[in-house]
Amino acid sequence: MATQQGREEGSKSGQHQGGRGFASMDEERQREIASKGGHAAHEQGTAHEFDSEEARQAGQKGGEAVSQDRQHMSEIGQKGGEAVSQDSQHMAEIGQKGGEARAAQMHQQSASSEKDDVSSDKGKSSTRGGTPEQHAKAGHQSHKNQ
Fold this sequence. Notes:
Radius of gyration: 33 Å
Strand content: under 5%
Order of helices and strands: HHHHHH
Shape: elongated
Mean pLDDT: 78
Largest sheet: none
Low-confidence stretches: 1-16
Number of strands: 0
Distance between the termini: 87 Å
């Protein structure tokens, strides 16, 4: 039977009341023992070795569990965004690609709009006027004047 003094000593060392068994040990000691067991199993050849499919499934299961924590996922995304935004070359490339995609989209809309204007409103001019390239050039020029 454990004495009061024994219980107090056990709780001071990170152990639960009673101080008996693996579960009552502090986390560091549990990890140490588990690590030794894992190493011994590998040395004996009795450890489970994951094949690539099992590893994929385990990773997927872990990822699904982690992704349920919206706060954690938000923090991960924020850290990633902050890290990427420090790379000015990468950000310039992203901006350039976005600008090119937007210009192509605008050009396509403009061409489609012009076809509609020609077929339905012969003689009327487009309200937008100019190509995306012309708009970009005009925008650059107007910023130079400020």
